[in-house]
Amino acid sequence: MRRREFGMTEESEIREFLQEMTFGFLGTVGEDGWSRVTPLNFVYDGEVFYFHGSLAGEKMKHLARDPRVSFTVAKEYAIIPSYFTDPKQACPASAYFKSVMVRGLVEKVDDLEEKSKAFTLFMEKLQPEGGYAPITPQDPTYAGELKAVALCRIVPEAISAKFKFGQNLKEPKLSAVTSGLEQRGGELDTETIALMKKYCPAHHES
């Protein structure tokens, strides 16, 4: 059952998360009817998703036959053990995460100016410190590369997001999870606590 309280509709929150993440999972369907899920780097410009790859390959064959795809980006922040809130029952065990799910159509991009803009977005995300010449079709350094590489855009028909950070919990369980994370002190536990305080109504009421 999909928990309504975990749904995220705030566009700025979704876009911020997509900017933070560097890769997602592309779902395509082959001629034999079997699905294929491919991890790949992506960028999102606020309207479409871009990904690139070889002009030849199984995923490109899938897309040439059927441009319908699903695309998912997700990040797990913390595993929540059951004993944080219940000393016996296993059911409260959970995981806190953000995920964005996209359904849409893939279009191949041939325009070199659009390719340049898309690959500039990739570089700004993956190499924010710079250290490269601006990407333009007029630069002979890039002209051949831009023509040779396949760039695709996913035009979304639907985007849904789920941010799960204990929104379904009430006190004292919410404080028990927060306390458990504080004591554990894992790599992302402090960030998880901050996100719980941001998204959980019970935190604002207390």
Automatic annotation (TrEMBL):
Signal peptide: none annotated. It comes from the Bacteria. InterPro entries: Pyridox_Oxase-rel (IPR024747), Split_barrel_FMN-bd (IPR012349). Pfam families: Pyridox_ox_2 (PF12900). SUPFAM superfamilies: FMN-binding split barrel. This is Pyridoxamine 5'-phosphate oxidase family protein. It comes from Paenibacillus rhizolycopersici.
